[in-house]
Amino acid sequence: MEKRPPLDILLCAPRGFCAGVDRAIQIVELALEKYGAPVYVRHAIVHNKYVVDGLRDRGAVFVEDLSEIPPTDAPVVFSAHGVPKSVPADAKSRNMFFLDATCPLVSKVHVEAQRHHAEGQEIVLIGHAGHPEVVGTMGQLPPGAISLIEHLADAMAFTPRDPAKLAFVTQTTLSVDDTREIVDALKRRFPLISGPHKEDICYATTNRQDAIKAVAPEVDAMIVVGSPNSSNSLRLVEVAERAGCTNAVLVDRASQIDWSRYQGIRTLGVSAGASAPEKLVDEVIEAFAQRFDIKVEARVTARENIAFNIPRELRTIEAAVSQ
Prior knowledge:
This protein has 3 domains: 6-17 and 203-300, Cobalt-precorrin-4 Transmethylase, domain 1 (3-Layer(aba) Sandwich), CATH 3.40.1010.20; 21-102, Rossmann fold, CATH 3.40.50.11270; 105-189, 4-hydroxy-3-methylbut-2-enyl diphosphate reductase, catalytic domain (Cobalt-precorrin-4 Transmethylase, domain 1). The chain contains 11 helices and 12 strands. It has helices at residues 19-35, 49-57, 86-93, 104-118, 132-138, 152-157, 176-189, 203-215, 231-242, 278-289, 315-322; strands at residues 6-13, 39-42, 60-63, 76-78, 98-100, 122-126, 146-149, 166-170, 221-225, 248-251, 267-272, 293-300. A 5-stranded parallel sheet has the order 10-9-11-1-12, with helices on both faces. Helix 5 (132-138) links the parallel strand 6 (122-126) and strand 7.
């Protein structure tokens, strides 16, 4: 039998599911348990193909617009990314029964934006155009109330109506370092700008990026498990590259691994985006175990014990399922 080359795997922790993702998936699962199929979901509940496919197999029907849903008594779930105010209004006009799976940390950003607007401030949103979270946040207020800033150059070119009445909020899944650079530029240009009471970038995004920063300088290659439409997963790859690991890639499943990238490596870092289940991390490690003599070491940079309540309508079934 051919001797397998040795490989040290440094497993980043925290990694994978955050409390908001866990809650959103649970809402769909409990709705299927309580009401039966179909349960309609507006947009992918979280940005992970494996999760979405699994829920679809159990009877979830994913749509991009409420107009795609026929007249029904079946529940409609709004994804973890949040929705514009027009969406629940549309659902009510269609007499739909809906459950909101918006992450509470995204809802916090919505509340901040509404508060700033009520105080007469113009709002800057730091985020990525077209991302559902950004669409949802901008849709909390009338058109023109929020200006989107994606890059440092946008921050330098932005001209507010009144620099003394300006506030910023951010998408929750951004690069911590990129966002800090943009916020610093805005604060230099507009010293009176108001920011969030507490950091908008969520604890899970920050913790996963910090774990990558700790591991990336020590490894020959880094794999981030996550789907290509997952903002927080893409940011983890960027963070790894900046932290010194140039051979960093995003993979959805072990079957996507390009083995030519790993010839001759002795150390590998593994992490997962906040919407990627641990089963897929295990799958990747097992794929390396078939080709290398692996030794796995967990690198823990933070502990997470946060959990969010599910909607009231599902709590009785949650209690029954957990018994």
